[in-house]
Amino acid sequence: MPTKLSTLLDKFAEKKIALAIILFIVCVAITAQKMAQGQNFFWNGMHTHYNNYVIFKYSFLHLVNHQNLYLFYPHQYADLYKYSPSFALVMAAFYYLPDFAGLSIWNCINVFLLFYAIQNFKLITTTQKLILLLFLFFEIILTTQNSQSNALLAALTLLAFNSFENKKPAHATLLIAIGFYIKIYSVLGCLLLLLYPQKLKSILYLALWSVVFLLLPLVLITPQQLIEQYKNWYQLLIMDQSQSIGMSVFAFTSAISTSALLKYIMLLLGAIILIVPAFLFRRHINPHFRVLYLALILIWMVVFNHKAESPTFIIAMLGVGLWYFHSIKTKINFYLTLLTFFFTSLWFTDIVPRPLKEIIMHVQYIKPFFPILVLVRIAYSLLSRNEQYPTRAE
Q: Domain check: are 234 and 258 in the same one?
């Protein structure tokens, strides 16, 4: 990196308040943009451009009125609610707010929790934290424009890792449990506890928090009603799993064959790649190994997710960024990171002309392609006996 640019980044990286102000402006500006766009026709009805937030806030109304959370309510929003009953209870705070205030707060929670998680990550330098934020910037905008929870889930997983590193398993498992009750795939964060001592203690804490959030809606509904909500949630998830491939490895396997067997074989292979490194206990002492395993989890959450959408990739891109800072600085790793940034993130902005996007490759394939390559590279690093790690976070 040229000396002048490096010096400029070093100075700006220290200005955390300035960075926070920029992120706040981004959150409020996107909220204002979505409010100003009014409604659009999709899913056979007129709906807002912040439809996901509307789904979230109305879930509380359905919960308190003892309605099935997982039915389609076209007079209120498009698509379906796919989160837990506990998440619907938490959205009570947003249901009673005007949309501009509620959506602004929701966007800020997502973005600033990720900002906080990165700033408190001790295994990269201050300048690298700024570069990581810049690396994620277009993904932050994308997920915020869709008023989704992906930045929040990325933050919870990173904060859980931070807590484990700080020998706080109670905090770490609480964050993992919160993530699970937002989106199920966040449960993969529990694999992190295998990297640290006091595994039994961590498992017990995780079980405790899981039960607490499982039963949390009982403050509003009866046990029988809660059981019905979980049954409805399970049925929805089963239906989704069988019908979807998302922007994932399954998009590629389905191009070869639509057989469900091939999909399950690929999932089994992915599970082996994900789980085996966690049991290489002698390597856990190396902080680079732990960070690479975190990166593996973050990318795996997305590229093996049958419901992965474009805004979901902020989670995978966080993993790619952390991997790069804790890998040997080879040309292959550098260009792989650069290509991932260009084709997974920058490619989906207005900077790249639409005709060019349509000519080269379908969005379903190009978005996950390079994160999958990074996942393979990380898996090789974790499983190889001869793999080298940098002597420090460079």
A: no
Alpha-carbon span 364 to 368, nearest angstrom: 7
Q: Of the candidates 158, 82, 76, 176, which has an alpha carbon nearest to the alpha carbon of residue 120?
A: 158
Residues 386 and 299 in one domain: yes
Whether 240 contacts 307, CB under 8 Å: yes
My answer on whether 331 and 380 are in the same domain is yes
Of 178-187, 359-368, 372-381, the least confident: 359-368
Of 194, 210, 242, which residue sits at a domain end? 242
- Contacts of residues 80-83 at CB distance under 8 Å and 24 or more positions apart, as own/partner, are 80/55, 80/236, 81/55, 81/56, 82/183, 82/236, 82/237, 82/240, 82/307, 83/56, 83/59, 83/181, 83/182, 83/183
φ, ψ for residue 39, nearest 5 deg: -120, 160
Please give the full DSSP string across 366-378, using - where no structure is assigned. Answer: HHHHHHHHHHHHH
Same domain, 235 and 361: no
| pTM for this model (two decimals) | 0.94
Alpha-carbon gap, residue 1 to 275, rounded angstroms:
36
How many independent structural domains does the chain possess?
2
Do 282 and 326 lie in one domain? The reply is yes
Total count of residues recorded for the chain: 394
Residues 133 and 232 in one domain: yes
pLDDT for 74-133, tens place per residue? 999 999 999 999 999 999 999 999 999 999 999 999 999 999 999 999 999 999 999 999
- Lowest-pLDDT choice from 119-133, 177-191, 236-250, 365-379: 236-250
Q: In 3-state terms, what secondary structure has residue 314?
A: helix
Can you tell me the mean pLDDT for 335-357? 87
Check: CB of residue 78 under 8 Å from CB of residue 43. Answer: yes
Structure tokens given for 347 = 């490619």
Q: How far is CA 151 from CA 30, 87, 342, in A?
A: 15, 16, 20
Whether 213 and 257 map to the same domain: the answer is no
From 242, 272, 300, give the residue that closes a domain. 242
* Domain containing residue 310: 244-394
Strand, coil or helix: 242: helix
d(CA 122, CA 5): 23
Residues 6+ apart with CB under 8 A from 389: 286, 288, 289, 326, 327, 328, 381
Angle at 333 between CA 129 and CA 345, to 5 degrees: 60
Contact 247, 368 (CB under 8 A): yes
